[in-house]
Amino acid sequence: MTTNPKGVSQEEPDDRKKQRLRSPAYPYINLETAITRAQTFYDREVRNAAPLAVAATDWGYEAKSSSAMQTAAALMSFGLLSDEGTGDKRKVRLTQNALKILLDKRPDSVERAELIKQAALAPKIHQQIWEKWGDSVSDGTLRHALIFEWKPPFNENSVDGFIREFRDTISFAKLTESDKVATEDGDKDTGRAGYIPKVGDYVQWESNGILQFPQSKRVTEISADGKYAMVEGSYTGLPIGELSLAKTPQGLTIVPPPEPRIQVSPNIHMQEFVVPLSDSKRAVFQWPNILTKEDIDDLKDSLKVVERQIARSMNKKSEEEKSE
């Protein structure tokens, strides 16, 4: 067996590579650069979805380069890009928030400024640091905390790159202490990233850049782990990160919120399956990740009911068209 001059086996570099500490996920580029990439995508694709390989070439990368993948991931973490499909069929498109930022040409637009602040705090790591320190922490203190106190900790070789990205993003978004995600007494900062719904609030749900409610709905329950909210007319948990505070629908009278139902276990999370339909429509199926055999049987029976309702809806539409 041949050894190298220092007597280190050929297997050791691989072992060292496996043991390398991976930092928590953070955007590959800062927010200002991400918005520039979003503008480039819009200039070529407008509002259309495009294969990820095409988006890569739009940005000047090789179709399957790691830089292209990391750029797309960064835009998604800022809430500027959404994706659909997998593998070679994976496509990306700009979100509604991205379009509002890019197309709002009003001088000193308050709405655009707020959306940029929201995007800056959309990445989880940004939100956590901003909640803890705001802009009052030095680079040295932040670096030490991220390496030795953060869970999971940062790799010391990549932490400086993250701090630069974080500082550049916060500066570009013009965030101040008044933009903290949540105050000490638990009040929410409405209309910004990190908004924490309360029972009785009216909210809008945006998933993959598409508004899901024709009009805002009232929150009826918050899961025990604080990650999901239930709204009127549904017992499906909606991800808190996809909700925003909305106005009370016109013509409705505000009444006291109902007593919450039994809290959902923190160990239960919602799975989601999205079926793309024609004209950018889609159907969404959600279910908890923990199911009993009886639950599965109930779901199977419920799907049959849904199938009958869809058939009735189609029959009714056909009859209406004939009557015309």
Roughly what is the average pLDDT, rounded to an integer? Answer: 78
- Residue fraction in strands: 5-15%
Into which percent range does the helicity of residues fall? 25-40%
The counted number of beta strands is 11
User: What series of H and E elements makes up the topology?
Assistant: HHEHHEEHHHHHEEEEEEEEH
SS-derived structural category: alpha+beta
Instruction: State Rg.
Output: 23 Å
| Main pleated-sheet profile | 6 strands, antiparallel
Number of domain units: 3
Spans of at least 5 consecutive residues whose pLDDT stays below 50 are 1-18, 181-193, 257-264
Polypeptide structure, described:
The chain has helices at residues 12-19, 31-45, 52-58, 66-77, 96-103, 110-120, 124-133, 139-148, 159-173, 293-323, and strands at residues 50-51, 81-84, 91-94, 202-207, 210-211, 217-222, 228-231, 238-239, 243-245, 270-276, 282-288. It has 324 residues and is of the alpha+beta class. It folds into three domains: 31-178, no CATH class; 202-274, no CATH class; 291-323. Strands 4, 5, 6, 7, 8 and 9 form a six-stranded antiparallel sheet that branches. The chain is globular and about 70 Å long. Mean pLDDT is 78; it is low at 1-18, 181-193 and 257-264.
